[in-house]
Amino acid sequence: MMHCRFCNTPLSQVFLDLGAAPASNSFLKPGDLNAPETYYPLKLFVCPECFLVQVDEVKSSADIFSSEYVYFSSYSSTWLAHAKAYVEATLPRLGLGPDSLVMEVASNDGYLLQYVRQAGTPALGIEPTACTARAAREKGVETIEAFFGVALAERLAAEGRQADLIVGNNVLAHVPDINDFVGGLRIALKPGGLVNMEFPHLYRLVESAQFDTVYHEHFSYLSLSTVRRIFAAQGLRVFDCEELPTHGGSLRIHARAEDDPKAQDTPRLSALLDMERAAGMLGPAYYQGFQDRVERIKAELLGFLAEQTLARKKVAAYGAAAKGNTLLNFCGVKAGQVAFVCDASPHKQGLFLPGSRIPVLHPEAIGRERPDYVLILPWNIKNEIMEKLAFIRQWGGRFVTPIPSPEVL
User: How many CB atoms sit inside 10 A of residue 142's CB?
Assistant: First the structure.
C-alpha cells in the first residue's frame, strides 16, 4: 500500500485516475517511432490525515529530469515577464544587494536569476538537468547541477553559502521527498532570510477541473493548509501568501525560520486558510466526484474533434506543453485528429509528442498549413498565444481551449 510522502499515513482514497501514460516530457525522435513506449500509471491519492494529494512514484525523478529534459522556461514571454517583475519588486523590498545571495532551486535555464545578476546581486542556481543548467551558465548564472535536499544544503552551509532569499517556482510539487526538500530549505537559509515558493493551488485545480496539470513529474498537488504543515515540520513558518494568476491559479508563500520575529501571520494568509476550510479542503468529501468531471471533458473534446474530422476541417495545436500531453493521452487523441502541434522552443521542434505521436513543428507551420482550428494546449497563457497567432482570423481560423471545458473562441 502506498503511504503519504509527508506524514506516512496509508493511502486508499483515489482522487483521480488517468490510466497509464508516458512521461509528459519524454518526446520522441523520428528514429523512436518504430519502437514501443513505456507507459506508467497516472493515479492520484489523497491523504486522509494531511490532505496532501499525490501521485504514486512509479517513475523516478532522476529519469524524468534527465539530460534530455526539454522544458526551457525562457521560451514563454509571459513567464519571463513574471520573473522579471518579481525580481524588480522583491530585491529592493528586502534590501538585497552586492553583499547578499539569492538562491533559486530548480533554476532551469536561468530565466529568473539573470535578472538578479543584472541588478548586481549574487545569484546561485540549483538545477538537476544538464541541458537547462548549461543554458543558465551561458547567461552567466552560476549553477550547481544537482537535486536539492538536506545533503546539498548542508554542503552549501558548510561553505558559508546560505541565502538571504531562496526562490522556488513550480518545484515544490516536483520533488518526491518533500520532507527532505523543505528540510534543505531551512538549512540553506541564512538567519533572517526569506523563502518564496510558487506552486499551482490545488483549490484552482479542483474548481476549474485542471486535470491536465497532472503528470508524473508533479508528485504533489498542494493546498496552503497542507504546505503550512509540511514547512512547520521542518522548522519553517509560512506567514504570508499571495494568490497569482500563473498556471491557472498559483500561490506564492513567504516563509521564515520559526523563531524569526518577522514571521508574523498576515491577514491575507488567514483569509486564504479560512477560504480553504470553508471550501471543505480539510475533509474527504471535497476530493470526491472529480473523476466524473474529467470524464465529461474528455467526451466533449473527442466529440469536437470527431465533428471536425467528419466536416473535413483541419485541427492543429499550439504549445507542446506537458499539460497538453496529459490531455491528449488521457483522451486518446492521435495524429490525424490533430495534424500537428507548433512550439516556439527549438528543443522540441522536429520531435513527436509522447503517446499521441503528433509531430512538433516550428510556429511558421500555422501560416503555411492554415488550420481551421488551433487547439491551445497551454491554456494558462492563451492570451499570449492568441495575440501571437491573431493572423489565423484572416482565413477564418478559430482558437479552442480545452479547460475547464472545450470552448471555441
Answer: 14
> How do residues 282-317 score in pLDDT, each as one tens digit?
999 999 999 999 999 999 999 999 999 999 999 999
Q: Say whether pTM exceeds 0.85.
A: yes
Secondary structure letter of residue 223 according to DSSP = -
How many residues would you count in the chain?
409
Residues with Cβ < 8 Å from 176, sequence gap 6 or more? Answer: 5, 57, 60, 61, 219
What is the spatial distance between Cα 44 and Cα 162, in angstroms, rounded to a whole number? 35
Pairing of strands 373-376, 315-318: parallel
In 3D space, the residue among 269, 302, 295, 288 whose CA is nearest the CA of residue 206 turns out to be 288
Identify the pLDDT of residue 321. 87
CA distances from residue 253 to 7, 21, 166, 200, 230 in whole angstroms, order as listed: 21, 31, 12, 11, 12
Question: What are the tens digits of pLDDT across the range 110-147?
Answer: 999 999 999 999 999 999 999 899 999 999 999 999 99
Cell of 292: 466524473
Q: How far apart are CA 261 and CA 239, in angstroms?
A: 11
What gap in Å lies between CA 121 and CA 141, rounded to an integer? 11
